[in-house]
Amino acid sequence: MDSFVNRFRGTTELWANEANMFDDFGPYDAVKEFSQPPVEFLKECTDEKSDSECRIKFEHGTTTLAFKFQGGIIVATDSRASAGSYIASQTVKKVIEINPYLLGTMAGGAADCQFWERELGRRCRNKERISVAAASKLLANMVYPYKGMGLSMGTMVTGWDKTGPNLFYVDSDGSRFKGDMFSVGSGSTFAYGVLDSGLDYELSTNDAIELSRRSIYHATYRDAASGGYVRIYHVKEQGWEFIGLFDVGNLHWEYNGL
C-alpha cells in the first residue's frame, strides 16, 4: 500500500505521464470534439474572393429589428428569401418561436438560424423559465466552436424573464451584445433611419407597432433583398404575442401613396 501511495505522492511522475500523453495523442483541441461540415468543398464552390467564377454566390439579404419600449419589446421582420439575385420566397417566417417567452430572428443563412435556434429551444426544456441572458449566452457558446467553418447567422434573442424584458444580439462568431434596439440585415441601414427618428421609450403599444411596421416597409422599399410581408410580434410579461402580417405592397400606398 505504501509503495502505491508513494508512487503518486510527488508530481514528477505525473508530469512525465502527462508528457507521454501529449506525445501519444497530441494537445487537446476542442474543435475536434465537434462534427465538422465539408468546409473545403464549400470554399471551392462559394469563395468569391479567390475565384470570381465560383459556382455558388451566397448573397444574404434581409431586414429584422427589435426594440424595447415601456410596454415590452417589439420584434419585426420582412419575409423575403433571396438566392443571389433570385427571389426564392416571399413568405419566409424569420421569427423563430423558441418557447412561449423567447423569440429569435433570422438573418444570414436560413438553415443555420433555424437549426441553432431550434436547438436552443430543445436545450431550454428544464421546467423553469430560462433568463434571456442565459439563453443568448448558451446560443453563443453553441456556435463559437464552429467559428470560421462557414456558419452565417446574425440573430436577436429576446424575451421576458424575472428581470423584465431583455434583448441580445448573437452572431455566428459567438459575439453577444445586450442592447435596447437592434436591426440586422442588408436593409438595416434604412430601418435604423426610421427607428432613430421615431423611437421613444414612452411610446404606446400601438405607436410602437406602427413604428416597427413603417421601419421594415421603408427598408423593403430601398433594399432589393428585403420584401414580402412585415411580420410583427409583441413580447410581454405573459409571453410573446403575434400581432400580424402586413403586405408591403399594400403598405406602399399608406406610406408613399400620392
UniProtKB/TrEMBL annotation:
<dbReference type="GO" id="GO:0005634">
    <property type="term" value="C:nucleus"/>
</dbReference>
<keyword id="KW-0963">Cytoplasm</keyword>
<protein>
    <recommendedName>
        <fullName>Proteasome subunit beta</fullName>
    </recommendedName>
</protein>
<dbReference type="GO" id="GO:0004298">
    <property type="term" value="F:threonine-type endopeptidase activity"/>
</dbReference>
<keyword id="KW-0888">Threonine protease</keyword>
<dbReference type="InterPro" id="IPR023333">
    <property type="entry name" value="Proteasome_suB-type"/>
</dbReference>
<keyword id="KW-0539">Nucleus</keyword>
<keyword id="KW-0865">Zymogen</keyword>
<dbReference type="InterPro" id="IPR016050">
    <property type="entry name" value="Proteasome_bsu_CS"/>
</dbReference>
<comment type="function">
    <text>Component of the proteasome, a multicatalytic proteinase complex which is characterized by its ability to cleave peptides with Arg, Phe, Tyr, Leu, and Glu adjacent to the leaving group at neutral or slightly basic pH. The proteasome has an ATP-dependent proteolytic activity.</text>
</comment>
<keyword id="KW-0378">Hydrolase</keyword>
<dbReference type="GO" id="GO:0019774">
    <property type="term" value="C:proteasome core complex, beta-subunit complex"/>
</dbReference>
<keyword id="KW-0645">Protease</keyword>
<feature type="active site" description="Nucleophile">
    <location>
        <position position="62"/>
    </location>
</feature>
<dbReference type="InterPro" id="IPR029055">
    <property type="entry name" value="Ntn_hydrolases_N"/>
</dbReference>
<dbReference type="InterPro" id="IPR000243">
    <property type="entry name" value="Pept_T1A_subB"/>
</dbReference>
<keyword id="KW-0647">Proteasome</keyword>
<dbReference type="GO" id="GO:0005737">
    <property type="term" value="C:cytoplasm"/>
</dbReference>
<dbReference type="Pfam" id="PF00227">
    <property type="entry name" value="Proteasome"/>
</dbReference>
<dbReference type="InterPro" id="IPR001353">
    <property type="entry name" value="Proteasome_sua/b"/>
</dbReference>
<comment type="similarity">
    <text>Belongs to the peptidase T1B family.</text>
</comment>
<comment type="subunit">
    <text>Component of the proteasome complex.</text>
</comment>
<dbReference type="GO" id="GO:0051603">
    <property type="term" value="P:proteolysis involved in protein catabolic process"/>
</dbReference>
